[in-house]
Amino acid sequence: xxxxxxxxxxxxxxxxxxxxxxxxxxxxxxxxxxxxxxxxxxxxxxxxxxxxxxxxxxxxxxxxxxxxxxxxxxxxxxxxxxxxxxxxxxxxxxxxxxxxxxxxxxxxxxxxxxxxxxxxxxxxxxxxxxxxxxxxxxxxxxxxxxxxxx
Length: 150
Hints:
Layout: H1 16-52, H2 54-81, H3 90-115, H4 121-132, H5 134-141
Helix pairs in contact: 1-2, 1-4, 1-5, 2-3, 2-4
């Protein structure tokens, strides 16, 4: 069984007020997701501090930072681009995400090179996962309305 979707006859036109509302909603959504990623990384870090000591807690923060730093830069760049009349654009988002992943991998490489045996790699991995999936915590705590509550 195939479904066909009928495309609208004419494009949807938004006035400036609607465009501004959408841009503001997008900015808030980006910041809210980043907020939950930071909160989840800090929570896991505190947990590891109590569980295994300060070194493990710092390793969680180091692992999370390898993702949060490039992700924060991408979020800031996307927010800046929403102030342009044409917006951020899907192309920049896709290329930016690719660059973000490469920078995160590079930062993990630097962490391994500089930290070496001082890094608790289990804790660092948990920190990385907490930062990567922190928005799930936000979705869980907002009842699945993370972007809809803006």
